[in-house]
Every structure is written in C-alpha cells, then in structure tokens.
Design brief:
150 residues; mainly beta; 8-stranded antiparallel β-barrel
Length: 150
Amino acid sequence: MPASASASAPVPAPVPAPVRTEGRFTFADWEEREVGPSGTSPRLARATVRNSFTGGIEAAGTLCAYTVAYTGESTGTFTGMELVSGSVDGREGSFVLEERGGFDAEGTRCRFEVVPGSATGALEGLSGSGAFTTRHGDSSVAYSFTYAVG
C-alpha cells in the first residue's frame, strides 16, 4: 500500500447528547415497618411506595422500596430502588432508579440515578440522573431528569 493511502478506521458511534426533561409525580400506598426494636434511636424502617409520574417520565404505579434511617423524630436519610415501567419522552420500556436523600421538618431532598444496564425496550442503554425536593404536605412533586439513550 502506498504511503499516501491509508485504511479507513471505523468511525465511532456518536455519543448521544444529554436531554433534560421535567414533570411531576404523586405517591400513594406508603407502607412503613420498623426494623429492630421499637422506641430506639436511631431507628431503621423499610417502606414500600407506589408513585405515578407525568411529564417527561410517564409511568403509572411504579414499585419502590426504601430503607429509612431516622436520626431524630422528623430527620433522617434514605436509600431506595424504584422500578419504573412506562416511557421517557415517548420511548417505552422500563428501568430502575437508585435513590438517595434526606429529610427534615421542612421536607425531603432526593437525587436519583438510573441503575446501569437496567433499561429495557426502547430505553435500552438509558443513563441519567435527576432530583426532586418536596415540602411536607405536597400532594404532587416536581422532578428534573437529565438522560441519554444509547
């Protein structure tokens, strides 16, 4: 092969640009059970919840499980996993969100991230993260989610 000729190298697939979407969710069926002896501090609890998302994420009746550490009467932290089956900006599939946050007398703050490899259907390859903040008594919670598929 002459020096001026070169074999063409494979062109890498373009990296999808992140997309930011927003919406709201409502929660229902909060069931919480203490873990360990009653009346101790700090205390642990397990909670199961169903959420319904509208907006960029459309999903009715997600399945969510939390572990909650109460460090005071109305303060603490939590971690959880949420199975979301529905769509993201019109792409259908399911995925799992890993959630971490804290709460106090004013409300709850949470950050969440898509569990790598958990997305199915038209969402296969989904990655992303988001957040929400709520005040006690809110019946509907705003969220933001930045994601890429591919």
